């Protein structure tokens, strides 16, 4: 009996030691930089907006462009302060002859996650807006599905934003800051992947760098006409809302 107790004590000690060593090697990042790759399936988007009514004209237009419009964004974070902005240029990109640069490709989003405040710079054609508002609250439903992204184990969550846009996100609790690309946040960790299946857009982290980021170095954008989200929606809807499906898609892309 005495030997059995010794073996149990030894086994318990080994388990505790192993768990302690594992915890010591677990890194919980509070600052760094993430590179996101944003992919827009232009062929699928054009089919969706035209409802199949354009025929040979639409087919000819698609032949002159890449199927995917790929852009890169850098996301710096320090504790609860984050800054999302355009990153490196895609040197192999084939410019879209219809959309040109495309909506939301120059977005800059500064967020204070602790106070739920956001300041973003958005370009609508040639006009710049600085949008000051609260961060969009998102009612996430966390699932058991997991996926590895940029070397991190992530868990899936689902939500609906703007009344009708279905969102799939993957977050990791190994990065403490509860942020994500564009205006996506609110999960118990960093969002490393976002997919809007019906909008044919994805953002996925391809690189996570342990950079020494100081909160004071993350500055909000200042150039542009100051509005809130409601005012921006009203302004662009007046000029673009009459464009049918094309206008609706452009407005949604800007307001994401």
Task: Describe the model.
The chain is of the alpha+beta class and 256 residues long. It has a single domain, classed as outer membrane lipoprotein receptor (LolB), chain A. The protein is 25% helix and 37% strand. Helix 4 packs antiparallel against helix 5. The longest helix is centred in the N-terminal third of the chain and has 23 residues.
Mean pLDDT: 84
**Global Rg:** 22 Å
Class of secondary structure makeup: alpha+beta
Share in helix = 10-25%
In total, how many beta strands?
12
Short recap of the structure:
Helix content is 25%, strand content 37%. It has 256 residues and is α+β, with helices and mostly antiparallel strands.
